[in-house]
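Here is one such tokenized protein:
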Amino acid sequence: MFTEEERAFLARATRTMQIIVGSLATGVVMFGAVTLVLATQQPKPVPDTPLLTYMSIVAAPVAILIAFMFPSVLVRSQRRAILAGKPTLNVGSIGGEPLPEAEQNLGPYLAGYQTALIVRSAILEGAAFFCLIAFMLEGQTVSLVAVGVLLLLLLSGVPTRSRVEEAIERERRAVNELREMGAIDAR
């Protein structure tokens, strides 16, 4: 379990991650609003072959798959680095005051979680922008449906304090179990 200092650190980090994911989602919503306003003012003729729409409809599920598979690679990489004693990602001060104990203990775990969250969210955001551009240029409603699905998935990833605590605790337990087994390969 976590100490009060660790809980406070995770609460601050969770707030930061909520702001990041919220900002990514807000960008999609704002660009979507601009796209809809432009579409109502300047209706586009329906192209014979809406190639960009087809591409965006294929890109959306591919992005969803990548968004939920690739971040786990980052987490596994961070786990291997922690086991080797050289975390590749770390929350830390450079040349400043020493970090509090909570940040030293949880920093590498949190950095892996945060990086995976940002990558996942950015992949979904990029696909949503692609679908919005396809709608803006070709006017096909199916592109807006894909944007809605991508935006819902993006928003479903907004971290809560309990979700972050559970993920960090699960990762810390996994690293400790691997250490006990003497494993360096954290697959």
In short: The mean pLDDT is 87. DSSP finds five helices and no strands in the chain.
